[in-house]
Structure formats: structure tokens, C-alpha cells
Design a protein that fits this description.
By secondary structure, the chain is of the alpha/beta class. About 40% of the residues lie in helices and about 20% in strands. It has helices at about 1-15, 30-40, 45-50, 55-70, 85-105, 125-130, 130-140, 155-160, 205-210, 225-235, 250-255, 265-270, 300-315, and strands at about 75, 80, 115-120, 145-150, 165-170, 180-185, 190-195, 215, 240-245, 260-265, 275-280, 285-295.
Length: about 325
């Protein structure tokens, strides 16, 4: 009851200066829509994400404009931008929405009977190393849990804030209030190449590594692999002759020629005996972490699910 009264008090405080409204009749779905429009900067994109019509979003915004006594969004060019008051409101309602969803979550869970969809934001690394191990457990112990997996690239924080995902897994850092983190895995970089490549006899020197024609994997956005950062810190750069957006099918580019590539060790191990694996002169360190928000922090299904992710990561070992 105390938590509920705190929520009601928080809602009441938002409407100071707006029209009189009974907070107990407030539509939390409307506040969720406002948060999403603010994040996406678009009525139509918010409607598409929520699977509702744009007129429904427009009607909701009109109601909220009356309630808050503020235009909330103004036109700028072909788009919209939030007012200062709108951004202030969204900051507060995000906390309220997360608290309400946590409050309404069931206090316990029977995994064998759980019926829930959990949205995971991650990338290729996690999909080929961690997720398969997790799926085996779910199909055995919680077959009613459905997974919806999306690519995070470098948008994990935004996806959590917009409730596009419940969990982010990856080698990123998400900072700020309302985010929770758990360390899962450590990894480092190795070099892969055709076994007939003369360099496969190893070990690779720094000079050999820098001179070798290399396929560079760019994972999207401004993310840079740790070995590239370490090279740049020493004033060095790889001999990049090819760039690809993912390690998928990487062996197709390496076999039968002199190209090498640098990838995390666990990714290299998925290639099997088709390639030679050598230590990288710039091994770096990769930290794969799990992030979530206050929205699911105390939800029993999510607490259980996060424990299974951690257990799956532990089984992968070092």
C-alpha cells in the first residue's frame, strides 16, 4: 500500500499547473505512449511500435496536453520536438511507470507454468554463444517463456528506456539511474585464418599482425573492437582490405587465401577446425554484461530468467 500511495502522490505532483484530475482515473497507457513519442520523436513511429493507429496516439496526446496544460510537442521542420515541460514530465513518468510495472508483477513464479514474452537485445556474439545454452534450459524448464530477440548494435540503452527490450546483453556500458548490471562473461581476441596460411605456424608478432591483410568486423554505430583501440593507442592500425558488419560467414572469406581476421575467442571456437586460431598480439579484454531497468527488477519471472542467463554464462566457463 505504501508503494501505491507513493505512486499516486507522484502522479498528483505532475499535474500541478494543469487541469484538475483524479489521479486514480489516470491511464498509465497514455503516459507510456507519451514516453514513447518523446523517445522516438514521432507519432507514427510510436503508433507502429505500440501496434495502434496514429489517430489514437494523436487523441492520447491531446488528452495529455489538456491535463498538463502544456503543448508537450511543437513542430520543427518536418518533425516534432518536446517542450522543456514535456521532457521534465517524461523524466518523472519513466520512474513512475517502472515502479508501477514492478508493483504489478507477480511476487512468485512457477517456471513450468510461466506464460510470458521476454525481449532480449543483443548481437551476434551473444546469439551464438550464450543464447543457445539459455534456450536449452528454457525448453526443458520453462517452455511457456517466449523470447523475442532484437539486434542492439549500440542502441541498447535506448531500447531499454523505450521498453523495446527487457534485457540488454553485450560488451557495452550503460550508466545512469534506474539501470542494473550483472557481469556475465570475459573474453579476449584471437586471430583466425586458413590453416594453410604461412602465418598459421605462429606465433604472430606485432609487425606480422599489422602487415597481414585483414578482414575487419565492424559491429555498427561507433563501437570499436578493443584490439583496434589498443592498436590506435600505440599509433598502429591493421592492414584492412575488407570490412564486414558481422562475423557470420567469416570463414567463407578466409579459406583459400592469405586473409586473417580478429574476433573474440568464443566466436572463433564456433568456426570449428575449418580455421587456425592463434593468440592475437593485442588480445584486449571483452566484458559481456547483462543490463535491465527498475521496470523488471523485482518481477519474479524476470528475476528467475536473469538467474538462468547468469547460470548459462557460468556453464560456458572461462
Amino acid at each position: 500500500m505504501g508503494k501505491l500511495m507513493e505512486l499516486i502522490s507522484g502522479i498528483e505532483s505532475l499535474y500541478i499547473g494543469g487541469m484538475s484530475i483524479d489521479p486514480l482515473t489516470l491511464d498509465f497507457a497514455a503516459l507510456r505512449t507519451l514516453r514513447l513519442v518523446h523517445a522516438l520523436g514521432s507519432f507514427s513511429r510510436a503508433a507502429e511500435t505500440l501496434n495502434i493507429t496514429q489517430p489514437t496516439v494523436s487523441y492520447t496526446m491531446a488528452r495529455l496536453r489538456d491535463a498538463f496544460g502544456d503543448p508537450l510537442f511543437v513542430r520543427q521542420g518536418s518533425g516534432i520536438i518536446p517542450t522543456a515541460r514535456c521532457s521534465e514530465i517524461v523524466l518523472q513518468i519513466s520512474q513512475l511507470l517502472d515502479q508501477f510495472e514492478a508493483l504489478s508483477a507477480p511476487p512468485t513464479i512457477d517456471p513450468t507454468r510461466a506464460e510470458i514474452e521476454i525481449r532480449i537485445s543483443c548481437n551476434y556474439y551473444e546469439r551464438v554463444t550464450l543464447i543457445p545454452e539459455l534456450v536449452r534450459v528454457l525448453r526443458r524448464e520453462a517452455p511457456g517463456i517466449r523470447l523475442h530477440i532484437i539486434s542492439s548494435t549500440v542502441r541498447g540503452k535506448e531500447q531499454l528506456m523505450r521498453s523495446e527490450s527487457d534485457i540488454v546483453i553485450g560488451p557495452i556500458q550503460i550508466e545512469g539511474a534506474g539501470f542494473y548490471r550483472r557481469s556475465l562473461l570475459k573474453d579476449s581476441y584471437v586471430c583466425v585464418m586458413d590453416p594453410s596460411n604461412p602465418l598459421a605456424q605462429g606465433p604472430l608478432t606485432v609487425d606480422q599482425f599489422c602487415a597481414a591483410p585483414q578482414v575487419i568486423v565492424h559491429y555498427g554505430g561507433n563501437f570499436r573492437s578493443r584490439f583496434l583501440v589498443d592498436m590506435a593507442d600505440q599509433g598502429l592500425a591493421p592492414n584492412a582490405v575488407m570490412n564486414v558488419p558481422s562475423p557470420a560467414n567469416l570463414t567463407d572469406f578466409l579459406l583459400g587465401n592469405d586473409l586473417i581476421a580478429t574476433v573474440p575467442r568464443r566466436i572463433a571456437q564456433t568456426f570449428g577446425p575449418a580455421v587456425a586460431i592463434l593468440p592475437c598480439p593485442f588480445p584486449g579484454q571483452i566484458s559481456i554484461d547483462l543490463y535491465w531497468t527498475a521496470r523488471t527488477h523485482v518481477s519474479a519471472p524476470h528475476v528467475w530468467f536473469r538467474s538462468q542467463i547468469a547460470a548459462a554464462a557460468a556453464r560456458l566457463g572461462t
